[in-house]
Design brief:
Blueprint (H helix, E strand, L loop, with lengths): L26 H14 L10 H14 L7 E4 L9 E6 L8 E6 L18 E3 L2 E3 L7 H17 L7 E6 L11 H8 L1 H4 L3 E4 L3 E4 L5 E10 L1 E10 L3 E2 L8 H13 L9 H13 L2 H9 L7 H10 L2 H4 L4 E9 L5 E2 L2 E10 L5 H12 L5 E5 L12 H14 L5 E6 L5 H6 L4 E3 L4 E2 L12 E3 H20 L1
Parallel strand pairs: 3-6, 3-7, 7-17, 8-18, 9-16
Antiparallel strand pairs: 1-2, 2-6, 4-5, 5-19, 8-9, 10-14, 10-15, 11-13, 12-14
């Protein structure tokens, strides 16, 4: 991801969820708790884990709930035995095209020595869950599994099939085993749908824990990494030369670090700030209004950026150095210095234009810039009345008066493959968080307990409404 997992954090929320601190869980919550723990504690990292094992465990739970073997499939791409995906189907009467619920079950690497707790044990402390994948994306995956079981038990009169897809390698970019991409290309019939629900959205709390807005992700930036490389003949370190590969690369990266891509609002981001300004207060609300002016108020944007880097990332393309490697011996001049620069590109900008901008900014012909893989641009899905009426009604039932606001995701999700295949895909979760990061992709990843169960109730109601009406 990506996402909006930066929204899911430790904070307090007074919402309509039946769970109170220390209270007994309801039967659906108990079931979710067990699924969540099992999934989180199954290692699905690229280095030592297995999505196939995790998918098989979830398939076993679905079959125990009454799903037939033919309705639950484990699909493993050739050459990737640990990259298995789960596709399950609850059949309706077929009068409407299916609903797809998509979540990835792979996670970013986690070094136990760096964490305060074992990243592959679900720890619940003071109203917070800690673990790798606690928020990204095993919370949503677990909720979808639990809800599929709940729908099955309730014997709902479905007008459309409900499809669950738990996929692998979303976190590996690029990857030859990305589950969503593989299913679109090779098993389209299994996941073809009128609408898909995915990660990428979430609710936002103010610093006091008051819910301000509920975001629905309707578009994402393009993920594209570049390699910057300098090579030369090297030599003995006792005879240093001015033309040093490390210094040249460092100087180019320094110039890039000072550069800022132009500020640009899309229809979605303009609407986001227009609506958010109505629910925020004080300086933040004033600054949101000020950046909507033509030209935008630069000082206002700087203040918003200080509140959260999201406010910079959603209004411009960003490129940032993420890895550097150089040299081959302590007593030798470097023959090669190489860096990875990761860009998140606005949906309507081209990768070629961004590459040309990088070349202009680093301003050194000795720094060779090449693409690492090829980014996938995807259209922004339409916010249809069927979806938005359901989202807004259910959200208002649970969080009265909290507006639903479209968002552009600064990160990326597997939704890009589905949107390009003509399956409109939206990030929406019902899980609220505040301004602090959740630790997704970093240390001590966490999700507040109440957010998990709030998301369960919201997504249960949303899936049920979309499938039965």
């Amino acid at each position: 991801m990506k996402r909006a997992h930066w929204l899911l954090v430790f904070s307090s929320l007074g919402s309509a969820s039946p769970l109170a601190q220390g209270a007994d869980l309801t039967p659906p919550q108990k079931q979710l708790r067990g699924i969540y723990q099992e999934l989180v504690e199954t290692n699905t990292t690229n280095s030592t884990g297995s999505c196939t094992v995790a998918a098989t465990k979830m398939a076993k739970r679905l079959k125990a709930a009454g799903y037939r073997d033919e309705d639950v499939r484990i699909i493993v791409p050739p050459g990737g035995p640990a990259k298995g995906n789960l596709v399950a189907r609850l059949k309706g009467d077929g009068s409407r095209k299916p609903l797809l619920m998509l979540a990835h079950i792979d996670v970013v690497e986690a070094n136990r020595a760096d964490w305060s707790r074992d990243p592959f044990k679900l720890v619940e402390e003071n109203g917070v869950f800690y673990a790798r994948g606690a928020s990204d994306d095993k919370a949503m995956a677990s909720v979808f599994v639990a809800n599929m079981i709940r729908y099955k038990n309730e014997k709902l009169a479905l007008k459309r099939d409900v499809i669950l897809a738990l996929t692998c390698d979303e976190e590996m970019v690029p990857s030859q085993f990305d589950g969503a991409e593989y299913l679109v290309k090779h098993h389209r019939d299994l996941i073809d749908a009128e609408i898909a629900l995915n990660e990428g959205g979430g609710g936002y709390l103010d610093k006091d824990g008051k819910p301000l807005r509920h975001g629905i992700q309707a578009g994402e930036k393009i993920y594209q990494s570049f390699q910057l490389e300098v090579t030369n003949g090297g030599g003995h370190s006792s005879l240093p030369m001015r033309d040093n590969a490390i210094y040249r690369l460092a100087e180019g990266l320094s110039r890039l670090g000072k550069f800022e891509f132009p500020f640009r609002l899309s229809d979605v981001t303009r609407k986001f700030y227009e609506k958010s300004a109505q629910v925020e207060q004080g300086q933040v609300a004033a600054d949101m209004k000020a950046i909507l002016a033509d030209p935008p108020d630069r000082a206002a944007l700087d203040r918003l950026y200080a509140v959260h880097p999201m406010h910079n990332a959603t209004v411009r393309t960003t490129c940032v150095a993420t890895k550097v490697e150089a040299g081959h011996a302590d007593n030798a001049l470097p023959q090669r210095a190489r860096a990875t620069v990761n860009c998140r590109i606005l949906p309507d900008e081209s990768i070629g234009d961004v590459q040309r901008t990088l070349e202009r900014v680093v301003a050194d012909d000795a720094i060779k810039i090449t693409r690492i893989g090829e980014g996938v641009a995807s259209p922004m899905p339409p916010l249809t009345p069927t979806l938005m009426n359901a989202v807004e009604d259910i959200s208002n039932d649970l969080w009265p008066g909290v507006p639903v606001i479209p968002t552009l995701l600064p990160g990326g999700t597997d939704g890009r493959f589905l949107n390009n295949a003509g399956i409109p895909t939206y990030g929406i979760s019902g899980m609220f968080g505040g301004p602090e990061p959740s630790g997704a992709h970093g240390l001590n990843e966490h999700l507040r307990v109440k957010s998990l169960y709030d998301g369960q109730e919201f997504l249960y109601r949303l899936g049920k409404r979309l499938a039965t009406e």
